[in-house]
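Residues determine shape. Next comes a sample protein:
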Amino acid sequence: MPRNYIGLSCSCHDPALAIVNSNGEVVFAEAAERYLQNKRAWYSPPDDLIRMSELLNTYCEKDADLILASTWQPSTLRKAEFFYFNSLFQNPVIQFLLGLLSSETPLPAPFSQLLISGTAKNLGLNTEFVFLLKNQINPQINSRLQVTRKAFDHHLTHAAAACYSSPFEEALCVIADGYGEGSSTAIFHYDRGTLKPIPRIKPSIPSLGIFFAKLCNACGFDSIKGEEWKVMGLAPYGKLNQTLYDSLKGLMEVKDGGFIYKNKQLIQQYESTLNHYILKRWDNPYDAADLAYTGQLVFSELMTDLLKSAYEICPSDRLVLSGGCALNSAFNGQVLELVPEFKSCYVFSAPGDDGNAVGAALLAYYSDHPPQNKKPAKLQSPYLGSTISMKTLSNLEQYSRLKKVPLECGETVSQKAAQFLAEGKIIGWMQGRAEFGPRALGNRSILADPRLPDIKLRLNIEVKYREEFRPFAPAILHEYGAEYFENYQETPYMERALRFHPQAAEKVPGVVHVDGTGRLQTVKRDWTPRFYDLISAFFQLTGIPLILNTSFNVMGKPIVHSVEDAIAVFMTTGMDVLIIEDRIYLK
């Protein structure tokens, strides 16, 4: 009897689901926020009850038993969530609610549903319920099929998602996030399919992830909404604040591959310092630039210390980096320079908690099929999410009044899109299956001409509705990467920022940040043919082998999930063209 493996990322934030088939292939992976169109999907189940029936029928093999694998061991999940909230929030109302949560006093509705029932729902019970329900009412389902539940350590699922998708046979894997099961860091040695945890001191409180979340709040942004990106974007506009640096850097240090408090007497000073900024109301976001710069510097130095300590414990010149801290693309682009012991660094497309759904599913698969000298993975495709409804596209054709643009004889949709870009038009581009992870990689993207000096302002003000300091990413043909970037590294998931060559930067001001960097996406034809062909066609027209790529959404909303989502964004923003598969629409 075949077995299929369903990974359920059941953190209180960023829940997700992944499906691995009987051959060990990831056939589906998607964060719940996409389907729900609810940013980060706080306290939502990873396996929505109605959605699950469709996913099981579409991606699971007929007559396959189901193995449900979650990303936390149940005994620690609630404790970890309490720690996360208690460490992050300073709001007295929330502190009161957390006090109730930690006591035996019954919670009043609706807070009980939010804080208690939410945890139970996030354990992912719906997949099993859907399967059993169908078994009762549908005689075509084999009644002998079974559903088995497994649970894995949180940091182990981070490591599995990253290492099993990496191009390495052997590597050092370092996890750093807000909180795991007993620690905010973990170290593993990966060797041909085997993940071995490295014993060490496991401090339970200092957390670089929570440090950065508080920094985000102090800068006037909202970590609950996932606005840490704004800190990275704002930091290059600032300069070092030495007094603040001394306060923040004096808080913690690295020992034996983990964080410990450097001076416990400084904890109160640290809390007082950041709380002062959290309560401050910035008149202008640029006023917080020095705070962002200094905090990002402290983050980078502490991460560097952590990686150097991990290397001393388990030497390997190949690094796999995961956990929420691995979403800091500004630091990722400096790793090989700051820690030259590493010759290569890999970061999965979803290093945060959503990616753990893939890790749990693969751990469950390999518990049934022990890897023996597992070969390195080819690039794990990030295009693992939902497909586009052709029925909805047909309805759009029949009933909408959008102007459809026909292709000329022999013309491809990629060539037509490149022509629109060269004319200065902004395109909504929706193709194939959605990307897994927080970044649009050419299937759910908004695209523009990087040569235009004012395109950043236009996109931020008229399309994305976000702060003007926010940068945009260059998607570049791999063959020209070294021509445009210093110390070029393949970056398939837009996971690191690299510095432009000065001469190259002058050609593409729309994707060059104020510090001369760009969070690039390497594009190869065998990874994403249509997107590659679009950039190639743009290169033929303009001599520029890259385009501006940003996620198909507006600030505060997830990346679009359905055709209806795409239409809504298109019609309510300053986009000029919408391209869905081969169909091109104008307003």
Summary: Residues 390-586 form a domain with the DHBP synthase fold (CATH 3.90.870.20). The two ends are 52 Å apart (CA to CA).
